[in-house]
From TrEMBL, chains A, B:
It comes from Harryflintia acetispora. This is Histidinol dehydrogenase. It is an enzyme of class 1 (oxidoreductase). Zn(2+) binds at Q258, H261, D360, H419. SUPFAM superfamilies: ALDH-like. Belongs to the histidinol dehydrogenase family. GO terms for cellular component: cytosol.
Amino acid sequence: MMRLTYANGKDEYELLGQLRDRGEAVDKKVSEAVAGIIGDVRARGDEALREYTARFDGYCPEDLEVSRDEINDALSSADPEYVQALLSAQENITEFHTRQKHQSFVDMKANGVILGQRVRGLHRVGLYVPGGTAAYPSSVLMNAIPAKIAGVGEIVMVTPPGRDGKPNPDILLAAAICGVDRVFLVGGAQAVAALAFGTGTVPRVDKIVGPGNIYVATAKKLLYGTVDIDMIAGPSEILVMADRSANPRYLAADLLSQAEHDPLASAILLTTDEEIARETIAELGRQKAALSREAIIDQSLSGYGAAIVCRSCSEMVELANLIAPEHLEVVCENPMEYVGKLDNAGSIFLGQYAPEPLGDYFAGPNHVLPTSGTARFFSPLSVDSFVKRSSFIYYTREALEEAKEDIVRIANSEGLSAHANSITVRFDEQAL
Amino acid sequence: MMRLTYANGKDEYELLGQLRDRGEAVDKKVSEAVAGIIGDVRARGDEALREYTARFDGYCPEDLEVSRDEINDALSSADPEYVQALLSAQENITEFHTRQKHQSFVDMKANGVILGQRVRGLHRVGLYVPGGTAAYPSSVLMNAIPAKIAGVGEIVMVTPPGRDGKPNPDILLAAAICGVDRVFLVGGAQAVAALAFGTGTVPRVDKIVGPGNIYVATAKKLLYGTVDIDMIAGPSEILVMADRSANPRYLAADLLSQAEHDPLASAILLTTDEEIARETIAELGRQKAALSREAIIDQSLSGYGAAIVCRSCSEMVELANLIAPEHLEVVCENPMEYVGKLDNAGSIFLGQYAPEPLGDYFAGPNHVLPTSGTARFFSPLSVDSFVKRSSFIYYTREALEEAKEDIVRIANSEGLSAHANSITVRFDEQAL
């Protein structure tokens, strides 16, 4: 069960070390195996892709691509209430992410100089969706919707075939709702390699997003640079800050919702009220018995869970900034006044009625968030994740002539005479 | 000297392969050496940092930090005309990058729901500046100015000591102009590791930017995730598109300005006019003799240079999009109409009077650009490179109740009953 400790400036650092180490695990054997698969798919294309699919998924479909009819069927045969739930989520996610979209800009100066930045969607993006019990339709929404808003030309989904050789119907449904363009029944490192290089069947993409197991994550890491990737996601985390106004039943439920993800998931409570800490721990025991993933919950709470009693709200804030959690709940009076103090968090949930699953599925902001303390410098997945920018410069002869002396001076200070020459050659018809 | 070829859909692919391979070189020996240095600096801090500095730079200053007086002296003792040149560049760079800055946003709905995205500068950023002949003051401007505009709290520069144990005065001058907060006389992989973990002397940073040799680049790559990095820069590139309106003297000068950077640098001319190709090649021979880095120019032009005669403007555009160059000059009539067609380029230079060095030093857009074809998915360094974002969500009881059914439905479809419980527990006082 979850431990109870008191903030003392020492135990928290130890806990922090434990959390960081979860994200840092690098398995040399996995790296070597994945590098082999990547090299093989690069060299032999579809032949290698089919061999690995048969070997790892137990079955390789004759046609690796899911037909448009099958995708449309997923939509027409689904439970209408479930479709409506996904459509409502889609509407909220679309509305929030549309606010993130940035325009190209241009500065046209009176002297004829034009400077600008063009922003446009990536040409083609690959979306990895795991199979089995980790097949989450919400992941499809959270990745595909910002890509669409960014103006991505084509979204290509890959997902491993199930044991029946078919795709997960909920995943196909989500793909149909979001307007995913093509779906291929391949998974693992071989699917990532196929997207990075292209094969006869699978088209090459510019960026690969979406969660996956250690093989998928390692393949993405190794191929970063050949292709862009979203981020290397570590195990999930929640940090809950609560003062005496909080309801321990709600706190426990929210901590459990994170703990059920994964034995390595982390759920931590910071509170200024020791009684709240004790009651929340008691509630955890009561509520978890009724949940479907109790064994996973027990492992994650005992391994990476803690209730830490703090001396003040500012100590809670300090610890939260130190931990830099993926999800941060502020269950305190006047929660809004904390936002400006919280420097490191992926997504912040404010008040009694913003449980973390609201953000996972429905509210609008993205659920693909930085983990393992990387909220110090990484940001949630966004429309910006799916665009590229180019700057452009137009100068007139007169404007360049005015800048000539300065540019030549800097070029010469750097010892780059050909840089200086490219300016002067335009004004000295006798030169060289 | 530069080769002359004709676009035929085959040679260009071969050339493309050669360009890509330059950026892909991974040296296993270097990786192992760098991993050793990183581990050592992490474990032993300043002690290891001093040992490596003495070993690799031949001298370890007693005080690793450059004093504020010394930085101020660099400004007061510099050539006033040179200072003015840097200040003019700073003004243009500041003006352009200020347009990139994005605000936090908030959506406050009529039902009391609040959704938002907070944007703020990173807490502390490390800026690597190489020593020796690759010490470029312009790099300091291009990295430090967007960081300042982003609201970065502290900029920490590291640069190796020169043979006299002192920093390069032009680098210190640029640091003073840009408001760099602290400067340390360390370089190489050991400096990158010190910034990533912090030592007794060097503070830990959230992101490391700036160019460096293979040891620096490898250290950044290995530490990505522990700290954020800008990008792994490959050798520099220019692609020039020219129609018959172009002046071969100017074209040659611009190609040379890129070729002088590095024996691996690439300078390619695409033109619809064979005569222009031939005259440009003749001009290259004429102009290079007067330049200071002729040996480097010869290597890069013969290794990675080419003049490719195309059958049409649209063939030039197609090839440019395929090559995805770092720098792209459009020296054609009506250059502006090409911008919307050019999908993959770091920075685009339009017309006869926008030579690439204008962008390196002066015009305003950033000169830190994606190389080796990565303009397909990467973007120039920008203010966005120095911010982090958090989303936030506030819901009322009524709004959550309205969303309840949808969220529970999605959670259950994903088999996550604790997610569903975190919603229902708030509305069913009897539950569990």
